TrEMBL record:
Its cofactor is FAD. It holds the Pfam family FAD_binding_4. GO terms for molecular function: catalytic activity; FAD binding. One of its GO terms (biological process) is respiratory electron transport chain. Keywords: FAD, Flavoprotein. InterPro entries: FAD-bd_oxidored_4_C, FAD-bd_PCMH, FAD-bd_PCMH-like_sf, FAD-bd_PCMH_sub1, FAD-bd_PCMH_sub2, FAD-linked_Oxase-like_C, FAD-oxidored/transferase_4, Oxid_FAD_bind_N. Belongs to the FAD-binding oxidoreductase/transferase type 4 family. The lineage of its organism: Bacteria, Pseudomonadati, Pseudomonadota, Betaproteobacteria, Burkholderiales. Residues 35-216 form the FAD-binding PCMH-type domain. This is FAD-binding oxidoreductase. The keyword RNA-binding does not apply.
Length: 470
């Protein structure tokens, strides 16, 4: 493979072809540090043309490619396997903001742009790019689109798919498809954009995107409500949507144990209530009129929710600092859970109307099969996405509990399927869940997916071993 690597160096510069084991290490280990692969090299192209040239070289020499953005994925989709035969194509150097159009409300960017940079650039133009998630300081928009990322704003703005108007993609043949059209309406054939979004780099490499922008809200207000059950949270959601309409942009469910973990590992972060409650919901309104109008809506909503026993208590943030403190409770749940020890994570979705039944039934099944397990249940209730995580019983070692991960997953995913849900809501399938979908997708779906893969990547060089069952 020396000739291949020499040609790569000629194509993108020797300093951007990384072969030293220590220098490659950060590209080979997944975000949760559960798996470390091996690679022939890490290639860091600086332009779409360089990506295309590298793909043609990989095709010529039969070298499999693993596209990588910020490497913040949670399903082993952005790291190589352990053969050492693959190369990682890291798009981190491709980080230009190509254009901002405030009349068309679009931004055209390189795929390697960090999400937070895009958010800040939009804000500087007095616009909003609403995709928001915990890893926004390091994840890239190419990875967000490749995995069809969700986050906290899906209730109002939709997933990454709904926030993208056009793509630039390097195909498995090393050709460049320029689909960077900032059009809301374009009925000229098959929707190639949506085909590549969510494909996790298995069909081609996203190198650029046209993103939707929105007017900046005049005000954002936040509240934390406490209640006795997920069913009460659903009742509050219905009321909030009825009273607040499109101004409701956040609705995050958190169980009591979630906030207990946060308070345990981050003592400066305490729930703002004199007593604990079974469930909490973090609500956010984004108002196009004024802060006074938003506060009036919130106060009316909270009053009615209290009077109708949908909630037991609530606080409305009266300042940006108080709002930030409430969001910190939500955003520190994964960090607190990591500090507590290893756990078994699930990124699932079920129809919103079934969430209460799903949690109640699945909690009982898990307690029956694994007595003493501790449930860390939180997520985007407004769009049906739960991070339904399971911590081991007290006194049970992490290693022993993780050894039963398949059994835990089977209980959870079977329950998701019974409730007409999905075993991956926003993280993708990667290598972690690819084989499980055999149990939950029809043969027709699997055949159609395999047919698309063969048609667009007949040599199976684009992120092989991901998404599709072996």
């Amino acid at each position: 493979m020396n000739n291949f690597l020499d040609l790569c160096r000629e194509t993108i510069g020797a300093s951007h072809v990384i072969t030293d084991a220590a220098d490659m290490a950060g590209y080979l280990t997944d975000w949760r540090r559960r798996f470390t692969g091996r690679a022939l090299a890490v290639l860091r192209p600086g332009s779409t043309e360089e990506v295309a040239a590298l793909v043609r070289l990989c095709r010529q020499f039969g070298v499999p490619m693993v596209p990588q953005g910020g490497n913040t994925g949670l399903v082993l989709g952005s790291v190589p396997d352990d053969t050492g035969n693959e190369v990682v194509l890291s798009l981190g150097r491709m980080n230009r903001i190509r254009a901002v159009d405030t009349v068309n409300n679009t931004m055209t960017v390189d795929a390697g742009c960090v999400l937070a940079t895009i958010q800040n650039t939009a804000a500087e133009a007095e616009r909003l790019f609403p995709l928001s998630l915990a890893a926004e300081g390091s994840c890239t928009i190419g990875g967000n689109l490749a995995s069809n990322a969700g986050g906290t704003g899906v209730l109002r703005y939709g997933n990454a798919r709904e926030l993208c108007l056009g793509l630039e993609v390097v195909t498995a043949q090393g050709e460049i498809w320029d689909g960077l059209r900032g059009l809301r309406k374009d009925n000229t054939g098959y929707d190639l954009r949506d085909l590549y979004i969510g494909s996790e780099g298995t069909l081609g490499i996203i190198t650029g995107a046209v993103l939707k922008l929105f007017p900046q809200p005049k005000a954002k207000v936040t509240a934390l409500a406490a209640m006795s059950s997920p069913d009460d949270a659903l009742a509050l959601l219905t009321l909030a949507q009825d009273r607040c309409g499109a101004t409701l942009t956040g609705f995050e469910l958190m169980s009591r144990f979630c906030l207990e973990l946060v308070a345990k590992h981050y003592p400066q972060m305490q729930p703002p209530f004199p007593q604990p409650y079974a469930q909490y919901v973090l609500l956010e309104l984004s108002d196009s009129e004024s802060e006074e109008h938003a506060m009036s809506l919130f106060e009316s909503l909270i009053t009615e929710a209290l009077e109708t026993n949908r909630i037991q208590d609530a606080v409305v943030a009266g300042s940006l600092a108080q709002s930030r403190a409430l969001w910190d409770l939500r955003e520190h749940i994964p960090l607190a859970q990591a500090n507590e020890g290893k756990n078994i994570k699930h990124d699932v979705s079920v129809p919103i109307s079934r969430i209460g039944d799903f949690i109640r039934e699945t909690d009982a099944l898990l307690q029956q099969a694994f007595p003493g397990i501790r449930m860390v249940t939180f997520g985007h209730l407004g769009d049906g996405n739960l991070h339904y995580n399971v911590s081991p019983p007290l006194g049970v070692s992490d290693v022993e509990f993780i050894g039963r991960q398949h059994e835990v997953n089977q209980v959870v995913h079977d329950s998701v399927h019974r409730h007409l849900g999905s075993i991956s809501a926003e993280h993708g399938l990667g290598a972690l869940k690819r084989d499980e979908i055999r149990q939950y997708k029809s043969d027709v779906e699997l055949v159609l997916m395999a047919t698309i893969k063969r048609a667009l990547d007949p040599d199976n060089l684009m992120n092989p071993g991901k998404v599709l069952p072996a």
